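Please check this one:

***
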Amino acid sequence: MATLVASPQEIPGTEIIEVVQSRSPEFNWVFFIVVAAFHLGAVAALFTPFYWSSVVVFAVMWFFGQNVGVAISYHRQLTHRSFSTPKWLEYAMAICGTMALQGSPIYWVAVHRMHHQYTDKPGDPHSPRDGKWWSHMGWILHGSLHSETTTLSRYAPDLQHDRFYQWLAVWHWLPLTLTGAALFCGGTVLGGWKLGLSWVIWGVFLRIAVGFHTTWLVNSATHLWGTRRFKTRDDSTNNWWVALLTGGEGWHNNHHAHPVSASHGMAWWELDFNYWGIQLLALLGLARNVRVMRPHGTSGDRTNPL
């Protein structure tokens, strides 16, 4: 496994164009309708027959959508280039990311790079300094970025110049749609339409609704509550319960201090399942140039009480 010491992030061939988040007078009705529909679908899990196989479907879809797709692919590989893989694997993991319904790779990466540029300062897409609700969800409903897609993509020129990601920017909803259809058909064949419907509710609607808030907690909770190992110029914290929910993304102060590091957990007790996945890929010869930072432990400058 090739492991490098993390250095300040530089994306080859990138030129950051300044775009900032602001409150838009236009309400994002499209996103609101989508989120509302998936939350209603999630509630339906309480009123449909329970099957243990549906729990298994939820767990498998969660692993590929949230852990492999959002955390390992969108965040650590595509945004920060913490490691590299063969292109076929990079693309496959990016498709997994679309299954979380959090936007295309270009959009997600651009917004996150903007967050690191303006963290907890004017222009940050989702800082709690602009309000707790804003940082969790309000920034998508009322923010200006949803109407600045073309300009925003300039924060991800490395992806914008890739024809696959250009295609996925338009068709990022397709993998989830096909997977939902496959779950319904597979469940119907094995146990009737009620089982097929249950697989869709648990594997798509409930998983995505919970996944929305799990990702948004990184934007909100880890800038509000937790401990700080590093004296970063922002409010980022290490939050253990967000880390457990996300597989390691909650060690957010570590991440903001060393954003290129593939490992966010920097102590033995800071469990980072997503990094374990990257290590597994490296062990199999599928990940290389894995960048890690293992600093000596230091006392934090502040603890934000829960």
Q: What stands out?
A: Residues 1-16, 297-306 have pLDDT under 50 and may be disordered. The CA atoms of residues 64 and 224 lie 28 Å apart.
